[in-house]
Amino acid sequence: MKQNNPNYRILLLLLFFPCILLAQTSLSGKVLDANGETVPFVNVIEKGTSNGTTTDVDGNFTISVPSLPSVLVFSSLGFETQEFNATNGNAISITLADSAEALDEVVVTGLASSIKRSNAANAVGSVTSEELVGTTSQSTVDGALYGKVTGVNITSSSGAPGGGFALRLRGITSITGNNQPLIVIDGVYVNNVEIPSGLRFASGANSGNEENSGNRLADLDPNDIANIEILKGSSAAAIYGQRGSAGVIIITTKRGKQGKTKISFRQDVGINKIQNALGLRPWTAASVLETFGQDELDKYNATIAERGSLYDYEDIIYGETGFITETALSASGGNDKTKFYVGGSYRDEEGIIKNTGFDRFSIRGNIDHKISNVFDISSSTNYIRSNSNRSFTGNENEGGLSYGYTLAFSRPWNNFFPDENGNYPDNPNASGNPLFVRDKAKNEDTNNRIIQSLTLNTKLFTNDNNRIKFSNSVGIDYLSNETFVYVPETHQAQQGLGASAGFIAQGKNSFTQFNTQSAFVWDHDALDGDLALTSQVGLAYLYQESNLVNARGTGLAAGQTNVTLSANQTTAQGLSEQKEVGYFGQVEGNYKDQFIGTLGYRFDKSTLNGGPNKLYGFPKASLAINLANFDFWSLEAVNLVKLRAAYGETGNSANFGSTFTSLAASNIGGTIGQSVDGIKGDPDIIPETAKEFEFGLDLGVINNRINFEATYYVKTVEDLILPRSTESSSGFVRETTNLGELQNKGIELAINAGIVESENFSWNTRVQFYKNTSEITRLDVPPFALGGAGFGLGLGTIYIEEGQPVTQLVGNIDRNGDGVSVPTQVGNTEPDFQMGFSNNLTLFKNLDISFLFQLKSGGENLNLSRYLSDLGQVTADLETQAGQDRLLTPTNADRFVEPAGYLKLREAAMYYRLKSSAIKTIFGDTVEAVKLGVSGRNLFTITDYSSYDPEVSVNGGSGLSSGIEVAPFPSSRQIFFHLNVNF
Q1: Inter-residue long-range contacts of 5-10, CB under 8 Å, 24+ positions, other chains counted
Q2: Fewer beta carbons under 10 A from the terminal one: N or C of the chain?
Q3: What's the first-to-final CA gap in the chain, in angstroms?
């Protein structure tokens, strides 16, 4: 007889339950990434079940499984999913590899957060170290960015060693204010100033930005950089508030990795040669007689009889072969607590003009240290010393110094070389002998710079769904600059000054920037992990001060280079101090990598604004939708389809001094007093505000082997700060206040493709297209020629006019033939569009070939160098019918506007990597890798432009002067040989 007793079953369960527990096996271990860093919050799942856990903040995990062997599956966003077959109870160590989809995919979205590129709602440009310097040797960071990022327009303002570049991100954002992007290096706001030397007081140039100065981004060694992110528009840069109107360039330098110490050595050797010489006018006896008369013909004949040829002073001045060397040594490594990177480099670059050059010594130390499970600290220290001699080029007014001016009026049958006693003859047709200037005059600067950043991260709270941390960083950029300009009293133009002959200027300039940022960041997982929220709030502070002292003297004692030994002395000093405070908050949400949204706001106040304690707000909002991550998506070949939209606002404060009326010192009867300098300040001036809408589409095909990115933007800049004339009865000449509005519209397209990926051959290509158009949409003052951006309506200038592009070139033209000239647009410096085309090929695993073409279509330059050479009648084409016709054309802006489009082979290289077997045979186990290569920059240029280079800017990198040429330092072609060795 069978009995069913439920109590019996319960008793059996209680008896056997401890046995069941004993049958469970506990597995534990740690998860690391490829750099040896612990990876928190990795999903650890028993394969085929729902049994799982996640790693803690230190990458540790423990999971119980019923029996062994058991297969564990490790997965986390940004890493390849990995399986592990556990056959015993030993501690497990798992190293996750970055997923192919995640490589180079993290971009900045806030001051204390980042996001995968595949989820970003903005078009953020990114350049890796390999893209930046992997092809050829680069002198400066800005010059290395040519053609590598959509929406970035770069114009060389000088071909002198050490550069001089104007960077524009998505067009012009200010007419009288800053147009260069904010530069942030490892969290430090970096000074990119151009420093005047006082040269204009000797040359007769109009302003400090006509002195051919370089910008101080040249101090940074491009080889120290690991990655550059470029926030091109206000929708991406809004979190930087009133510093972000012209865009933001975020530079991250190289850091150490866990593992054995690795040493890298690099030696580059190269040459500099002029890229495009204009050549001599093909003189004949008949043309000399017709042009200059019998006296000059006699000199011509005497020179031909004596030496058999004319003097080619263009080749004599610009035809040097400059030698370039760069040596770099770095070491990196570390353990689970401390990682380090130490690097040093020295670059010595001679120019194409004798006695010109640029050298830079840089040493860097980056340290990351994990103090405990709660605290970690990072430090970056960079010391740089750089020197340059830029000689004398660019605009002047009969100073007899600028080579372009003197060559335009120098006749090639005159001998300018010194005699046996070292005496240089005068130039009979110009105010200076170019060989004397090259050999005797000096235009030098020296820079000592320290850039220091320090960041402390504190993990305040962690559980399964929340991670809260506090981050505090400080940054210091200190620059000490000295300038030296010397023109001997024996210089031709100086001799005419009598007792005031000779010129010297000594500059002592210092700049200090200090910035700090504190932020709380809260990561929260909601909806069973389907929704990830990242919130941040914080405070940013920036302090800047500058002290520029320039002592000048004329009437030098013979052979002396000391201001105190001059008869007439002047000292000028410029002091400025700025303080800014920003309060920011931002929330980012990510639902299953399907919907990614951001809302943020920043309040800023600045001593540059009217009402220094008034807060100005800058909002941002964005949304990205990844259609390929939805359940309904079934097209496996297309793995990314992202629609995105973003809006943001940024600001641009007035220039220092705009809020108050300046006083000038006056001397009346020996008594020092003060007077108003005629410029009225505006105590109510507000920042210019850029408001940008951005829309885009991103596609990824075949596991992102092919990527396509399309972006359209509209950026409106309101409350433009402009000058206007005032009533004479007010006692002022002009005032500066908010008076206009401009708009930029543009499109950016890019495609990346891994065309071939096989064992013995790979080919990757990238094509970029970008176009920007600008318009002055409101102007509360009459149209005007912008000071410092041209030479008036007679020769042509940038002209600010409602309904017209901000980059238009205008001159007074008599179109109707009635003798009445009116302001007329004769050109536009803005390109119709630009393109970049880069390719990287690898053959048989050891031979790398790469090249980068850059195309600029449309846009015009005002070529006033040809105006000068036409005046001197030495232009090379004057023997042609076109040249003769040009001489008959009225001398106005219309005559000198030329198309400035071009196609350049910007970079090309070929490297060979020695096979490991050959390395081991030659070097043993000491050397890991050896790479030999040859490369070039600016190898050729195809253009209709008649001067040295269609990339010109007479007024340096600031303002709107791009596209106006006056006697520049010619650009050069460079060839390099490379040796890279890794130990």
Answers
A1: none
A2: N
A3: 85
Distances (CA, A) of 589 to 504, 534, 536, 598: 61, 6, 12, 6
Tokens of 872: 């001197």
C-alpha span between 96 and 29 (Å, rounded): 13
For residue 21, the model assigns a pLDDT of 40
Name residue 378's amino acid.
S
Cβ–Cβ under 8 Å, residues 620 and 648: yes
Residue 962 DSSP class: B
Is the preceding omega at residue 69 within 30 degrees of 0, hence cis?
A: yes
**Beta strand 92-95 with 25-32: parallel, antiparallel or unpaired?**
parallel
Count of CB atoms situated within 10 Å of the CB of 785: 18
Name the amino acid, one letter, at 486: Y
Q: What is the pLDDT of residues 119-128, one digit of tens each?
A: 788 888 889 8
The CA distance from 691 to 620, in Å, is 10
For the chain, which domains are there?
Answer: 6-95 (2.60.40.4130), 141-147+174-277+319-401+441-781+829-859+900-982 (2.40.170.20)
Q: Name the DSSP letter for residue 194.
A: B
CA torsion, points 172, 174, 176, 179, in degrees to nearest 10? -60
41 phi/psi in degrees, rounded to 5: 60, 35
Euclidean distance between CA atoms 808 and 115, whole angstroms: 39
DSSP-derived 3-state class of residue 435 = helix
What is the C-alpha to C-alpha distance for residues 594 and 625, in angstroms, rounded to an integer? 6
Contact assessment for residue 35 and residue 80, using Cβ atoms and an 8 Å cutoff: no
- CA 772 to centroid of chain Cα atoms: 18
Q: What is the reported pLDDT for 99?
A: 63
Sheet hosting strand 248-253, strand order edge to edge:
124-128, 225-231, 248-253, 182-185, 188-190
Instruction: Please tell me the distance from the alpha carbon of residue 741 to that of residue 430, in angstroms, as a whole number.
Output: 45
β-strand 734-757 against 679-680: which pairing, if any? parallel
Distance, in Å, from the CA atom of 974 to the CA atom of 908, rounded to the nearest integer, reads: 11
Dist. CA 566–CA 579, nearest whole Å: 39
CA distance 979 to 684: 59
- Tracing tokens 């309040």 back to the chain, one arrives at 603
- Can you give the pLDDT at residue 933? 96
pTM attached to this predicted model: 0.88
Quote the pLDDT of residue 295.
Answer: 95
Q: Which residues of the chain have pLDDT under 50?
A: 1-22, 101-104
Amino acid 10: pLDDT: 43
What values do phi and psi take at 142, rounded to 5?
Answer: -65, -40
Which residues, including other chains, have CB under 8 Å from residue 890's CB and lie 6 or more apart? 814
- C-alpha 502/C-alpha 492 separation (Å) is 10
